[in-house]
Amino acid sequence: MSDTQQFDVIVIGAGPAGYHAAIRAAQLGMKTACIDAALGKDGKPALGGTCLRVGCIPSKALLDSSRQFWNMGHIFGDHGISFDNAKIDVSAMVGRKDKIVKQFTGGIAQLFKANKITAFYGFGTLHAGNVVKVKQHDGSEVELKGTNVILAAGSDSIELPFAKFDGQHIVDNVGALDFTEVPKRLGVIGAGVIGLELGSVWNRLGAKVTILEAMPDFLAAADGEAAKVAAREFKKQGLDIQLGAKVSKAEVKNGEVHLTYTDAKGEQNIVVDKLLVAVGRKAASKGLLADGTGVQLDERGRIVVDEHCHTGVDGVWAVGDCVRGPMLAHKGFEEGIAVAELIAGLPGHVNFDTIPWVIYTEPEIAWVGKTEEQLKAEGIPYKAGSFPFAAVGRAVAMAEPAGFVKVLAHAETDRVLGMHLVGANVSELVHEGVLTMEFSGSADDLARICHAHPSLSEAVHDAAMAVHKRAIHKAN
Question: Which positions fall inside the Pyridine nucleotide-disulphide oxidoreductase dimerisation domain (predicted)?
Fold first, then answer.
């Protein structure tokens, strides 16, 4: 067709993986288009995907607001700061969050413009022969053809058959970011990242939060010791986390949600005002592929790719949440950039062994590499060194003594195999472990690097020294 627009690279999806891919492709001199269907609260196109619009960024804004309020009632007194009758204006808090989101979605639009990326707003579907048809929001359809197509469709919240989202009483992360008032009782299904972070937000603001987790272990993906320390802190904050609790029913009656679940004691019932369902996410691959593309989906609806994010179909790639691997924005960033570089004939690469994980609760939880449980299961000989923030001067001065840092190193080579952290700002400190592992560094390397005093990073230094039982500030 003569009216088919031609591009070197077409990206479907402008979330973290997609917009990074599009910008890097454009930087490398390729004529690039990016398609995205999302609309903001104002009904206008909003780039940035789940992460920017209704995920990572807005949740951090609310976490920070709620933390300020929590500190007023729980920590400020220790600093000698007093005040009367602190209040939270939920609409102002949510408005601040919305303003931040708009700033960043607009920022991506400006980056597209600066890099001469053609944006299409609507739903893109891949057809055979690298043709992409876009049903735009105004109802019109455009046809594009790309030498390369990068699928970056992202992910959607998983909905439970017995707890359908109604946007008012039963919500996903989107709804839980936009409550108009603090619910008296908030139920959460799932003690994962979303459940813990948003549960923490509303708990700090005064909601009675009950988190029901079907698994018998808390944060099974994390290091066992780190999970145990974090769980203890959450309990102190009043979060009620019930493990081995399998929910079977959620009914809305008279503006309340009646929940039925089964645990070790048998059948239980609780009533809440709002229910957040946070049981995970699934690849948003529905409607993405027309018949005959040759692109394969796995049993979970994810696009099948090789280690280079190639689908096996000439010129078709896939990145981010819609493929294998952790559903993390920064993993998507790296895959998007790597694929753009591979298309340009450069060596693109993502090291899955050094992707950091962070849960932005209070205290934060972060890790990179192997857990102690994994090392034991794999029969890898290791040494562990840990250090508590309670012995770090800066942490105590900040009134943030909870948590610790643990360094895991190979017993023979001393190479760092993992780092696990619970505490204030550990989302930043974990990158000491990432860098050390990327450069194949040892625990001794970390122990011999001078760290500023007083700083939270000293916990990393002392934990690395503790691997060889030479920590100065604790008994070895």
Answer: 355-463
What confidence tier does 1 reach under pLDDT thresholds 50, 70, 90? very low
Give me the residues paired with residue 189 across strands. Answer: 212, 277
Q: What six digits make up the tokens of 54? A: 């209704």
Six-digit token pair at 42?
A: 């104002």
User: What single-letter amino acid sits at 103?
Assistant: Q
Tell me: the pLDDT tens digits for 99-151?
Answer: 999 999 999 999 999 999 999 999 999 999 999 999 999 999 999 999 999 99
pLDDT at residue 80, as a whole number: 94
Joined together, the tokens standing for residue 89 give 């204006």
Q: Which tokens is 57 given? A: 């960024």
pLDDT interval class at 156 (50, 70, 90)? very high
Query: How many other C-beta atoms can be found within 10 angstroms of the C-beta atom of residue 262?
Result: 14
- Contact at 8 Å (CB) between 368 and 396? no
Residue pair 126/289 in contact by the 8 Å Cβ criterion: yes
Domains of the chain and CATH, by start: 5-157+282-352 (3.50.50.60), 170-279 (3.50.50.60), 363-466 (3.30.390.30)
Residues annotated as part of the active site: 453
Partnered with residue 125 across adjacent β-strands are 133
- Amino acid identity for residue 313 in this structure: V
> Which SS3 state, helix, strand or coil, does residue 174 take?
helix
CA distance 283 to 298: 10
Please report which helix (H) or strand (E) contains residue 6, including its range.
strand 5-12
Q: Residue 155 and residue 335: Cα distance in Å, rounded?
A: 15
Convert the pLDDT of each residue in 27-50 to its tens digit.
Answer: 999 999 999 999 999 999 999 999
